[in-house]
Amino acid sequence: MTGATSGHGRAVAMELARRGADMVILGRNSEKCSAVQDEIRELAGRKPEVLLCDMSSQSDIRRAAAHFLSWNRPLHILVNNAGLVNRRYCETVDGYEETFAVNYLAPFHLTLLLLDRMRQCAPARIINISSDTHYIADIDLNDVEGKSRRYSLMGAYSRSKLAIVYFTRELSRRLAGTGITANAVDPGPVRSNIANKPGALAKLANAIIQLTFPRPEIAARTAVFCASSPEMEGRSGGYYRFMKKKEPRVSTDPDFGAKLWEITARLIGVDIR
Asked: Which residues are identified as catalytic?
């Protein structure tokens, strides 16, 4: 599970551990990972492995995936939860717009690198965290990162979450008959530190989130449901909110997801079919 050290991700990790999952948590901050390790050990009586990785770096994703595969562990559930929002335009070490890179390119890349292991362990489930903000987004296939547009926090965030919807649907199509399912989840509003950034507006947004949004344990229910419920056995390609399937907003072009997949694979230099 990625992004398991705070907020929604931590709540999902804790609940899956409570239900018996033998976990590997992937994060970039060793102190935060160690803290969650200790919490899970206290809760569930077992200590999860930690895999350090900077999800904004494609080379670090490749290194972390190779490290995990070297352990020869089974992989039945992959939860791609890590994400961020940026008030200002930022680029990664690879030159990608950072929100798009962390929220979309990273789970795309990590998932493809781990697919063979999941095929060996099927049945297996992939849970990708998206958002209802995707309803206000659009993706230009000639500029998938949106670099030619004036940057906005919501524009970048919603675009990355729409890309996750397309990725999930296309991944599900390509995995048909393998025993691996892929579904996207909107947790709904979450009391988290995602807006805890410098600046007066960010501080105001963070204060509103802390005062009015539901606790992470409530928001985590949908991802936990999709990852562990017997009701979700064999269900794939869906978009879920509040543990109910709903229709995402996608292009009328039936090949849009496949086109975005090919562009993404070229960006990161990986295409495992």
From this structure: 157
